[in-house]
């Protein structure tokens, strides 16, 4: 409880989007190629939620193929996650509590008013304490990549029912500024890395690893073993930080990442990044950042994507204190 702090705005002072409206990708003239979007693929449908909008709302309560889902984003941690809304929380969805836990946005469900940590999807206060939300894979991609990968996808519009400066960043300089916005940072930061260093956080069966974002960006592909299973972590440049420049399109290029199980077509695979995409050494097939083979013997195959967090070290190291660091 001593790590819970007021975040500034009161409950619902950052309003969730409860009636999201979408347009076809071809009609989205309000998103630029390098803008960050949180992309999901669920029940045969694909949707993009621009971080330019999520920065101001943090929660979108949505329905996809008959399922209630919540798409959430924490600007202070720089993380977006998507999860199924459990039956116990009813149809009213989630809102922003106005509280922070270790600098992570605390959500509340409107049915029971239990509190949920966005970062872990676990409730730790209220009627549903101990309940774990079911995450499903989502990817932070550039708008150009999403549009190319999912031409039939839909994108959340700025027709939210609220008036916000969606083209601007409410946290200018947060990504690269020397001031870590200390009042929002937990007091118990793991000293192994600088607080604002970007990592790719992955957790399987209580085994956690933080893959250095810079290392993946430089190498293109990093192989990791977690919970006894091989994983492959990819990076593709071309996606702006939404937490850097005054405008969301003006941030530094932090790229996009993907995490997959490196097996398809009945065989284990290893990969390298090339100008054409990601190529497996075993068959020479070419894959895209979403894990889809588009050329070569395995064209049409898809790698199993894993939930992961593209986030800042202070958050990952605090929520997963036993995490290893790779490399």
Number of strands: 28
* Number of separate helices: 4
Helix coverage percent of residues? under 10%
Low-confidence parts lasting 5 or more residues at pLDDT below 50? none
User: What sort of overall outline do the alpha carbons produce when their principal axes are compared?
Assistant: globular
What's the rounded overall pLDDT mean? 92
Estimate the strand proportion: 35-45%
Distance between the termini: 33 Å
| Main β-sheet description | 5 strands, antiparallel
Assembly form of the protein: single chain
The value of Rg in angstroms is: 19 Å
Secondary structure category: mainly beta
Q: For the largest beta sheet, what order do the strands appear in spatially?
A: 1-8-9-10-11
What does this entry look like structurally?
It contains four helices and 28 strands. The protein is mainly beta. Strand 10 and strand 11 form a beta hairpin. The longest helix has 7 residues. The mean pLDDT is 92.
């Amino acid at each position: 409880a001593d790590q819970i702090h007021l975040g500034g705005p009161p409950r619902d002072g950052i309003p969730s989007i409860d009636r999201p409206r979408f347009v076809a990708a071809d009609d989205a003239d309000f998103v630029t190629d390098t803008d960050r979007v949180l992309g999901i693929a669920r029940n045969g449908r694909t949707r993009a939620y621009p971080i330019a909008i999520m920065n101001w709302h943090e929660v979108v309560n949505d329905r996809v193929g008959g399922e209630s889902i919540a798409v959430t984003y924490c600007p202070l941690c720089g993380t977006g996650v998507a999860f199924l809304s459990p039956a116990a929380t009813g149809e009213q969805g989630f809102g922003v509590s106005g509280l922070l836990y270790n600098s992570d946005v605390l959500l509340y469900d409107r049915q029971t008013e239990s509190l949920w940590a966005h970062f872990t999807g676990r409730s730790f206060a209220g009627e549903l304490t101990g309940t774990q939300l079911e995450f499903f894979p989502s990817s932070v991609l550039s708008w150009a990549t999403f549009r190319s990968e999912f031409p039939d996808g839909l994108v959340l519009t700025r027709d939210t029912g609220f008036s916000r400066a969606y083209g601007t960043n409410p946290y200018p300089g947060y990504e690269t500024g020397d001031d870590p916005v200390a009042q929002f940072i937990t007091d118990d930061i793991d000293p192994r890395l600088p607080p604002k260093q970007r990592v790719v956080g992955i957790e399987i069966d209580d085994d956690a690893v933080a893959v250095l974002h810079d290392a993946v960006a430089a190498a293109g592909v990093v192989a990791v073993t977690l919970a006894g299973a091989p994983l492959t972590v990819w990076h593709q440049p071309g996606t702006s930080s939404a937490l850097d420049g005054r405008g969301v399109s003006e941030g530094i290029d932090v790229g996009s990442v993907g995490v997959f199980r490196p097996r398809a077509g009945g065989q284990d695979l290893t990969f390298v990044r090339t100008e054409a995409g990601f190529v497996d050494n075993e068959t020479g097939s070419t894959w895209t950042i979403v894990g889809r083979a588009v050329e070569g013997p395995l064209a049409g195959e898809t790698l199993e994507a894993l939930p992961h967090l593209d986030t800042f070290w202070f958050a990952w190291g605090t929520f997963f204190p036993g995490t290893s660091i790779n490399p």
